[in-house]
Amino acid sequence: MVHAEKHHYIDWLSHKLISEDKTRPHHHAESRPMAVEREATHRAITLAETDDAPPFLVHVSGREAVEQIAWARSQGLLVYGETCPQYLFLTAEDIDRLGFEGAKFMCSPPTHDAANPEVLWRALEDDMLQFVSPDHSPSRFEGHDGKKANGEDAPSPKSPTAFPASRPVYP
What we know:
By secondary structure, the chain is α/β, with parallel strands linked by helices. The protein has 7 helices and 4 strands, in the order βαααβαβαααβ.
C-alpha cells in the first residue's frame, strides 16, 4: 500500500514557497504539483515490479498517476488503485476560495483542475482504479487543534490537511 508523493521535493518546494511569502491555502496545492504524484507512482510501480509484488496505490488524485497505472497494466503488471471522494467531486477552485476558507479543502495530494474528476471517473469505469475510500482523517476548522490552530496567517504546512469534521472529533 503506497501513498505516492515525492516527500523530498514537496518539502523543498514548501520551504521555497514560504520564503516567497506564498502561504495561502492554495499554495499547499502548488507545493504538490501533479508531477510529484506521477513520479512517486512510477517509482512505486517500478519497485513493486522488481519485487514481483502488486502495489496498491492509495489517494490517486490525478490523471498523470492514472497514466502511470495504465502504462503498467499495459505491460501486464498487476497494479491496484484507490481514489477518494474529494478527487471525484472537488477541484483546485475549492482550495482557492477567499481568505482562509480554502483551508477547508486542503488535502494531500491536492485536488486538481476541473477536467481531472472526469479522468478519475473514467479510470474507475475502466478498472484502472478499483476502490473509492473516504480516507477518514477529519480535523476541526476552529479550535486549538483545528485548521485555524496556528492562525489564519500561518503558512499552509502548519494547517492540517484533512477535511473539517461536521461534528466533534474525539482523541
